[in-house]
């Protein structure tokens, strides 16, 4: 029900809706009331009365809607609908109130009449909501904050710039490594032959140990530079496997492996030293030249 249908502007009216019955009344939510747009409304005041007995739980829940018309005129509050489920017949039912016609007259001191609105002074209607602040506000220009400034855009672009720099550095490093590997690959034979030249000088000087060391370095170094591998990671088996993967002729692979074995044998075997050294030098030179032809 409604407490009044004839009132003046800025005067309050109360629409009371009570829901009663058996069941969990506390779970009933406030119904939707459509007040005219010229009415100022507030959240309803809720009053709950629960009765518990041996037959169950029953009670009422009352909703008091407060509304204040701000303009004069004739208005209608549409019927309020309430929907609930009845477990007895297992169906939904809808109850609704009647429509209320409200007549609002212009109150004292009000500059409003019907749909015409005039500017009026501020009236303190309550302390719970602050009025919009009038006059100049303490607003600062956009430049005083980080957003929209040069620093803001620099910081925004910084991650992208850093990412590009990292990619550039990584690409440059990769190219450098590739270039170093390419240079070592191309110069592998030249460096090996220069070691053979040193070995030849050691042979003439009668320095057998250094001769064999240089021959071994020439062969192992050739494979290391050609495949861009550390000498410490090479072995007889790994060298053979690398050459086979590159489809080097089997006889060339065998000659290469035989030369490496001959070096180790000649270091400790007695006999014609000069003859052995000359043969090993020739075998090493031939093995490197044949491997180079296959690996180009």
Automatic annotation (TrEMBL):
This is BatD. The keyword Membrane applies. Keywords: Membrane, Transmembrane, Transmembrane helix. It holds the Pfam family BatD. The chain crosses the membrane at residues 150-170. It comes from hydrothermal vent metagenome.
